């Protein structure tokens, strides 16, 4: 088993956190886009 330095662990955690944030932002954007599409469709009828 290899040993990691504190800096390596912190870097890995930071990278993982940024990945989660990007994924979360995409989910929110998709939700807003879906809401806009639904709103646009209901106005057409």
Succession of helices and strands: H
Using only C-alpha atoms, the radius of gyration works out to 20 Å
Output mean pLDDT. 85
What amount of the residues lies in strands?
A: under 5%
Classification by helices and strands = mainly alpha
| Distinct helical segment count | 1
Main sheet characteristics: none
| Total beta strands | 0
Protein name: Gag-pol polyprotein
Walk me through this protein's architecture.
It is a single chain. This protein is mainly α. 87% of the residues lie in helices and 0% in strands. The protein has one helix and no strands. It has one helix at residues 6-44. The chain is rod-shaped, with a radius of gyration of 20 Å. The mean pLDDT is 85.
Element layout with pairings:
Blueprint: H1 6-44
In brief, what are we looking at here?
This is Gag-pol polyprotein. This protein has one helix spanning 6-44.
Quick tags:
0% strand; single chain; rod-shaped; 45 residues; 87% helix; mainly alpha
